[in-house]
Amino acid sequence: MKFFVILATVFVFATADLSPFREACKNELNIPEASIENYKRWQFNDEHSACYIECIFKKMGLFTDGNFNLDLLAQKLKGDDKTEEEIKPEIEKCIDNSITNHCDKAFNGFKCFKEKNLYRVQQSAHKH
């Protein structure tokens, strides 16, 4: 079950056309082009990474007012074998509500999904 949630979440992030979001977030946050190129290769290891992920998630509607949009995530992640209500507890396991900084909270959730199955994350991203 965890594998499905992780893979589905990554699929949502990797398969979306991120070009307009990347450009908007780059401009809003004044992120150098070199960092954006690293992010396209799933290398999120600089001081801009956390706020960039928060910005992308916000543009996708996955993160609003400092919180993950569980309903939208569940809607996007449900499969033929799981309902939205059945998938929500799995999503919630990667959300740390003790984190008050919005950038850090979004990035921590993203890393939780990504780190659980990095090979699948990168495999999905390279398809697009």
From TrEMBL:
GO cellular component: extracellular space
Family that this chain belongs to: Belongs to the PBP/GOBP family.
Regions annotated as coiled coil: none
Keywords annotated in UniProt: Disulfide bond, Secreted, Signal
Signal sequence, start to end: 1-16
Keyword Signal (UniProt): yes
Official protein name in the record: Odorant binding protein
Gene3D superfamilies tied to this protein: Pheromone/general odorant binding protein domain (1.10.238.20)
Annotated localization: Secreted
Organism, scientific name: Polypedilum vanderplanki
GO molecular function: odorant binding
GO biological process terms, semicolon-separated: sensory perception of smell
Keyword Signal in annotation: yes
InterPro entries referenced in this protein's UniProt entry, alphabetically: PBP/GOBP (IPR006170), PBP_GOBP_sf (IPR036728)
